[in-house]
Please model this.
Amino acid sequence: MQFSLPDDNDPRRLEVREWIQSHPSPSAGQLAESGYVVPHWPRPWGLDADPITQLVIDDELKRANIRRPFNPIGIGWLGPTIIKGGTQAQRERYLYPMLAGEELWCQLFSEPSAGSDLASLTTQAVPDKDVYIINGSKIWTTFAHVAKFGVLLARTNPDAPKHEGISYFICPMDAKGITIRTIRDMTGRESFNEVFFDDVRIPKENLVGEENRGWEIAKTTLSNERVSLSREGVMWGAGPTSYDLIELVRGVDGEKITDPLLRQRIASIYIKEEILRVLRLRMVGARVMGHTTGPEASIRKALADAHGRKLMELAMDIANATGMIHGGGPLAGLIGWEKGSGDTWGKHRTLAANDWISGFLFSPALTIGGGTAEVQRNVIAERILGLPRDVD
Ligand SMILES: Cc1cc2nc3c(=O)[nH]c(=O)nc-3n(C[C@H](O)[C@H](O)[C@H](O)COP(=O)(O)OP(=O)(O)OC[C@H]3O[C@@H](n4cnc5c(N)ncnc54)[C@H](O)[C@@H]3O)c2cc1C
Model:
């Protein structure tokens, strides 16, 4: 199954090319103003572009080797939430610097005792004149140590049922009373953090939506996160594809791959990737037809994350004992899956470095971050198959 894009002389292509000609090395700000960072967003931040136009713009930017600004969490899923639930003043203040990558964003949702069961969170926000006073702690907050702002979920009514007493805030990460402690993951990188709040004062104007109605807004954020985390490349849109794996095998094993078991495993990974590609096309197709995709993103995420782990495990098996040597062995000489990398990850590969060993060490995180594999299955069971709800 192929999905052909409009041909070379399509007026939509010509328009993008004309812009690129007048901006051959666009700054992040020019890209943000052009609408090409998020063509699917409404104007003035995006272009209200239909899915085909979005694909055309992606294609033309790629051809011209233009990378979009880096702000994966902000642009990927927090921005759309602020558009939907925020005030006009919030949209005007935060969205352009977000799109230009000038202000990096993070997501302060998970807590030590509230991950999958996020609605059990206990961080408190108590109103006091024109501020809310925040106390509590968050964990696994990607980019908290470098972010300018975070979106924060906190409980404003401890007596209400758990989904009904939560509010959604924009939190300046340099506010007095915030302590950030970096966590080193097993790749050796420090990309996520613990964040502690001690009497942190957040202005009331930073509340997004209504007080105690934050859960509804958080659900928009979480569903956008699932779509964002299911692009090509097995590391949440970055990382290698099975084509890169085949190149790796050839590099290690020579042109002819003779081991029958290895051939079988590669074939199985290749088949899974084709299934994922077709699922992705189905999602794009649904959007072209004007349908929105919802829980279907959970199907793709559930399959894609397990596939990513399998692919990285196979790469490690191919390397054999030398795969244990970081910076050495056959894999070290075969670094690179540039062509599979998602554009936003280009400059800062904080999460998934573009080498096989770091990728392998990071890959268990795929089935945890953005909602675990089990939680995705619950979503599929309840919202697609109509099975009884999980216990609360
Ligand atoms: C790389 C990475 C980046 C992250 N970045 C962020 C971030 O920026 N901001 C943020 O807020 N969080 C972030 N997280 C946290 C992530 O959202 C949580 O780790 C995830 O939601 C799981 O929560 P938990 O770790 O508390 O595990 P738990 O919820 O305690 O789950 C433990 C195990 O129990 C299973 N389980 C739990 N509930 C059920 C159920 N109802 N049915 C079946 N099985 C169940 C889970 O699947 C899992 O296997 C990140 C995580 C990773 C790995």
Remarks:
- The mean pLDDT is 85.
- The chain is about 40% helix and 15% strand.
